[in-house]
């Protein structure tokens, strides 16, 4: 088959392929960009596969970066765009269920496509629009099916991450996973424990960001794959509820984990633990803790000024989305933002008084001064006090006198 009009991204990359071909090698567009074009979806990055060896690729272009040269990947820089260009290769070994023991560069496109995970990802595209399809990927695309290239049992045994990739593509594309491929996941789920948690994390989040999360979650649950993800084993009921409730994907990673935390009913401490086990960054953990608290307030309709203030605008929007997607009560986003915007202050810095002012009025530096500022902050946020220097000063002095 032939694509009549190629997306602009491919047209822009054509000089790269032309240069490689002019030197006597083959080069094709491969991977997600080809699949997504055929599905009429926007494409992110254009990946190129070539028969030229990495050193040969490098000799043809002025600006290249060795992004993964031991696996044959060189990034070619062209007018501000980077093109990952990977030499055709086969892989063998996989004794650790995740990385091939050896990568062998080959000159055959078919051998390269043969090592790819799913048939819909094993298509190659020529610059004239011709699609090369050795494994019936076009039929699977048409039938909305995810099917391993070759024997799924073998392919998941080679690289267990592919099982997570299967469920995330199901959720991103609204595709069904082929029954033999599902059986492969059922048989090999436990191998996921051999995979670096960071890589599982990426795929899990992509699954819940996909537009049809239930498509992935169904298989994730039914095959038992979830049990081999950090800390998920004890939460099968909650994950099951989630797949029934969740009708569309989330908009960012903080929302994903806040949804999980709210569904599992986790405490502040438990969120920290779970996300540490999932190898998350500290900032993400803090955001999820804050957002999850706000989800509870939103769904129990107990949002007050202090909750708004402590959560902050960005996390409020996220928490509101999570409450909505969980089918809990939630707000009109604009109304919630309006309530937040109406607060007198949005940070402690905005208080119309400083520690300096209090000291100038005779307050001694020390814990009391901090307590007085905290008191003022709370009173101003709650609307009990006007944010005016004189008002705050006299209130602080009364407060400290009463405490003394
Ligand atoms: P996305 O749109 O998310 O980037 P993608 O299909 O491009 O999806 P990538 O992770 O960018 O996915 O990988 C590019 C291509 O490399 C895939 O389409 C597939 O052909 C191949 N590939 C990636 N990971 C694996 C793997 N674990 N096993 C086999 N082939 C893989
Ligand atoms: Mg890609």
Write a brief caption for the model.
This protein is of the alpha+beta class and 404 residues long. The protein folds into four domains: 143 residues, Beta Polymerase, domain 2, CATH 3.30.460; 105 residues, Hydrophobic Seed Protein (Orthogonal Bundle); 91 residues, Methane Monooxygenase Hydroxylase, Chain G, domain 1 (Up-down Bundle); 54 residues, Orthogonal Bundle (Serum Albumin, Chain A, Domain 1). The mean pLDDT is 96.
Question: What features would you describe in this structure?
Answer:
This protein is α+β, with helices and mostly antiparallel strands and 404 residues long. The model has no long low-confidence stretch (mean pLDDT 96). It is built from 20 helices and eleven strands. Helices cover 52% and strands 10% of the residues. The longest helix has 18 residues, at 282-299. The strands form three sheets. A seven-stranded mixed β-sheet has the order 3-4-5-2-1-8-9. The chain is elongated, with a radius of gyration of 27 Å. Helix 10 runs antiparallel to helix 11 (236-245). The chain folds into four domains: 1-143, Beta Polymerase, domain 2 (2-Layer Sandwich); 145-249, Hydrophobic Seed Protein, CATH 1.10.110; 253-343, Up-down Bundle (Methane Monooxygenase Hydroxylase, Chain G, domain 1); 350-403, Serum Albumin, Chain A, Domain 1 (Orthogonal Bundle). The protein binds adenosine-5'-triphosphate and magnesium ion. It comes from Secundilactobacillus mixtipabuli. Mg(2+) binds at residues 45, 47. Homodimer. This is CCA-adding enzyme. Residues 27-147 form the Poly A polymerase head domain.
């Amino acid at each position: 088959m032939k694509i009549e009009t190629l997306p602009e991204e491919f047209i822009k990359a054509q000089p790269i392929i032309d240069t490689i071909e002019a030197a006597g090698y083959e080069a094709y567009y491969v991977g997600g960009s080809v699949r997504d074009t055929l599905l009429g979806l926007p494409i992110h990055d254009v990946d190129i596969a070539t028969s030229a060896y990495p050193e040969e690729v490098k000799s043809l272009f002025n600006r290249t970066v060795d992004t993964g040269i031991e696996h044959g990947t060189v990034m070619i820089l062209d007018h501000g765009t980077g093109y990952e260009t990977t030499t055709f290769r086969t892989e063998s070994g996989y004794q650790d269920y995740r990385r091939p023991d050896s990568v062998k560069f080959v000159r055959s496109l078919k051998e390269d496509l043969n090592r790819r995970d799913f048939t819909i990802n094993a298509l190659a595209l020529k610059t004239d629009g011709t699609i090369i399809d050795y494994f019936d990927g076009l039929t699977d695309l048409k039938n909305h099916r995810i099917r391993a290239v070759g024997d799924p049992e073998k392919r998941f045994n080679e690289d267990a991450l592919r099982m997570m990739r299967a469920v995330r593509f199901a959720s991103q594309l609204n595709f069904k996973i082929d029954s033999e491929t599902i059986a492969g996941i059922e048989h090999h789920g436990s191998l996921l424990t051999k995979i670096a948690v960071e890589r599982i994390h990426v795929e899990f989040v992509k699954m819940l960001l996909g537009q049809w999360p239930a498509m992935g979650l169904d298989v994730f649950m039914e095959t038992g794959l979830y049990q081999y993800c950090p800390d998920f084993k004890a939460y099968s009921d909650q994950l099951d509820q989630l797949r029934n409730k969740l009708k569309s994907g989330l908009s960012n990673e903080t929302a994903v984990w806040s949804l999980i935390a709210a569904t599992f009913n986790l405490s502040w401490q438990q969120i920290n633990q779970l996300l540490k086990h999932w190898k998350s960054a500290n900032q993400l953990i803090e955001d999820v803790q804050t957002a999850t608290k706000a989800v509870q307030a939103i769904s129990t309709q107990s949002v007050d000024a202090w909750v708004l203030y402590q959560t902050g605008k960005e996390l409020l929007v996220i928490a509101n989305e999570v409450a909505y997607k969980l089918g809990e009560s939630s707000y009109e986003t604009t109304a919630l933002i309006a309530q937040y915007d109406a607060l007198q202050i949005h940070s402690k810095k905005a208080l119309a008084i400083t520690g300096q002012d209090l000291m100038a009025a005779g307050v001694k530096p020390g814990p009391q001064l901090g307590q007085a500022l905290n008191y003022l902050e709370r009173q101003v946020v709650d609307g009990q006090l006007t944010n005016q220097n004189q008002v705050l000063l006299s209130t602080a002095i009364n407060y400290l006198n009463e405490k003394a």
